[in-house]
Amino acid sequence: MNSNIQKLYQLANKPTRLIIGLMSGTSLDGLDIALCGVTGNGLNTKLELLKFETIPYTADFKKEVRTVFSKKQVDLEKLCLLNPWIALQHAAIINTCLQKWNIKNEEVDLVASHGQTIYHAPNRLHRQQNFGNATLQIGDGDHLAVATNIITISDFRQKNIAAGGEGAPLAVYGDYILFSKKGEDRILLNIGGIANFTFLPGDIENEQILCTDVGPGNTLMDAYMQENFPGASFDADAAIARSGRVHEALLAAFKEDDFFKQDLPKSTGPELFNLLYLQNAKQKCCPEALSVADTMATLNKFSADMITAAILDCIKDKTGVTIFVSGGGIHNPLLMQYLQEQLPACSFHTTFENGIDPDAKEAVLFALLANECVSGNALDLLKGTMDIPAVAMGKISFPG
């Protein structure tokens, strides 16, 4: 037997696996690295978040990735070069963190790498009849495995698409395993660049589970801040948005896109919600110049309104729904204020109450997907769930 296959077989049968989950989102702020102890699989999974850090990306890293990020036309040579290069940057971060944590690489069973999303192209967005759903994440798994000497699971989204999904969001798999609670309707709301949520019914009926993107979370606000305030990545404490006033005509123009008329579940990305989207909306309704503060105030309200509308569309007349929030949006006090005001029948919490740092949640979920890939049962527990393929995801890369 190939020694790597033998090692994989042995770790699949271990009672507890040490797994590093990696997440690099569309905000390009840094690499989330979560060291998890994972016992069991499926609904018997127990997970402990042992270590977590977000390592900020350098200006050079962001500059290189942005040359190909979310663009229809790119330099193919640069794209080819970035695929291994990003993996090697991530591997160096892993090696540095493990050294800092006094953990040897050989003690880690798996690395679960989301990679860096470059383009997300569901059919609902590209609308080309001859092609289906597609997405592309780069940061090659083989390079990661060799550079860390750890078996690596990567490129999770392709199997989801191959089995009939849109490749996003994938949070439902880990949300169902970690956060389902009989007798309590729950929503796991993640506000990253794009906002998405998982609805977990209290009766644990698969047919009612829903996982969907809802539109922009931070992506438009962050892009606009970066355009107007060089060196600023986001609107800290919503200071700029709070200083402005919502422009109602612009807010209405933001909401006109067909995406918001499409049924849940659905997926999207900065390929749609970007500065061109903002520019086009302004041209429709704002012949006068609009201040930066008023624009930010309107973008903030736009994100809040579309998150609210999607949640209400999902829960209908249910009351007492518990919402657990994660992602960068939890640090935006104005956005969170709007959500709580507009969803008074829901109670708001963060995933800290479940033992998961809300900034670490996505990285943790990919560690869970890697665990299911090697020791689970193709997530049979989700069979019958609406538009959610019950498949194990991830490609396996060996160190040698």
Description:
This protein is 38% helix and 20% strand. The protein is globular and about 70 Å long. The protein contains 14 helices and twelve strands. The longest helix is centred in the N-terminal third of the chain and has 25 residues. The mean pLDDT is 94. By secondary structure, it is an alpha/beta fold.
Corresponding CATH architecture of the largest domain: 2-Layer Sandwich
Number of domains: 2
Principal-axes shape call: globular
Oligomer: single chain
By helix and strand content, what is the structural category?
A: alpha/beta
CATH topology title of the largest domain:
Nucleotidyltransferase, domain 5
What is the CATH homology-level superfamily of the largest domain? ATPase, nucleotide binding domain
Number of strands: 12
Helix content: 25-40%
What's the helix-strand series? HEEEHHEHEHEHHEEEHHHHHEHEHE
Q: DSSP strand (E) fraction? A: 15-25%
What is the highest CATH level, the class of the largest domain? Alpha Beta
> What about the largest sheet?
7 strands, mixed
Radius of gyration: 21 Å
**What's the N-to-C terminus distance?**
14 Å
